Amino acid sequence: MEFGVMMGILLDGLQLTVLIFFVTLLGALPLGVVVALARMSRFKPLSLVAQFYISILRGTPLMLQLMAIMFGPYYLFGLEMGTDWKFGACAIGFILNYAAYFAEIYRSGIQSIPRGQYEAASVLGYTKAQTFMKIVLPQVIKRILPAMGNEIITLVKDTSLAFVLGIMEMFNAAKALAAREVSMVPYAIAALIYWLFCLLIEFVMNKIEKRLDYYHD
Questions:
Q1: CB environment 55-82: b (16+ within 10 A), e (fewer)
Q2: Domain parsing of the chain, residue ranges
Q3: Degrees (nearest 5) of the Cα angle 198, 204, 210?
Q4: Residues 21-32 pLDDT 10s
Q5: In whole angstroms, what is the distance from residue 39 CA to residue 46 CA?
Q6: What span, in angstroms and rounded, lies between the C-alpha atoms of 158 and 169?
Q7: Angle at CA 136, nearest 5°, toward 132 and 137?
Q8: At what angle do helices 62-77 and 85-111 cross, to 10 degrees?
Q9: How far apart are alpha carbons 134 and 54 in whole angstroms?
Q10: Are residues 57 and 65 in contact, defined by beta-carbon separation less than 8 angstroms?
Q11: Which residue, among 135, 106, 109, has the nearest Cα to 122 in the 3D structure?
């Protein structure tokens, strides 16, 4: 197979990889906030539900979660979801899984802010919303960026797990090409693309960290 044809197949797979990546971030980042707030809630039943959710999603393999969501509707309820369900199951699995990790990162960031800052803001006449948005949130973002960066880079690599659902993302495309050509070259090219993708994420995260350097601990 010509190199150009091989690259075309891998780049088609990359489009799905990138789509899974951004869909996961768009869903997991806000859901993680909701789960973190529920986890910190003084309403004990809500807090326990959030803790259980986090424990299950972080304590079981993502691959197993993807397969459970993919095949669960049929085995549990006899529902035929169709081929279009593959990407839906993949998106739901990734979003739910990464929301659990993001929630714990958010929680650690929020709880790291000294109580005195809330009290000082109250003395100055800030409302709770103003205190959170203008004082707490910028500091939380700065503190959690390194951990968030690590999780986002992990997400780039975890997109390869979509292959278990038969989604032809880049890893699955490389796997098929390697079997067809009896060659490690497709794997090497895919590895290079994953690495470049991760370098891009690191570059963006470093830029954001530098922009927030004026928020000192």
A1: eebeeeebeebbbebbeeeeeeeeeeee
A2: 3-211
A3: 135
A4: 999 999 999 999
A5: 7
A6: 11
A7: 80
A8: 130
A9: 28
A10: yes
A11: 135
To which residue do tokens 């891009």 refer? Answer: 200
User: Residue 215: pLDDT band by 50, 70, 90 thresholds?
Assistant: low
pLDDT in tens, 52-107: 999 999 999 999 999 999 999 988 888 888 878 999 999 999 999 999 999 999 99
CA distance 51 to 25: 21
**pTM across the whole model:** 0.91
DSSP output for 45-90: HHHHHHHHHHHHHHHS-HHHHHHHHHHHHHHHH-----TTHHHHHH
Options 2.60.120.260, 1.10.357.10, 1.10.3720.10, 3.40.50.970; which CATH number does 3-211 get? 1.10.3720.10
41 φψ region: left (φ > 0), alpha (ψ -120 to 50), beta (else): beta
Q: At what angle do helices 170-181 and 3-39 cross, to 10 degrees?
A: 150
Residue 140 CA to residue 104 CA, distance in Å, equals 13
At residue 203, the pLDDT reads 95
pLDDT for the residue 137: 79
| Biggest CA pair distance of the chain | 71
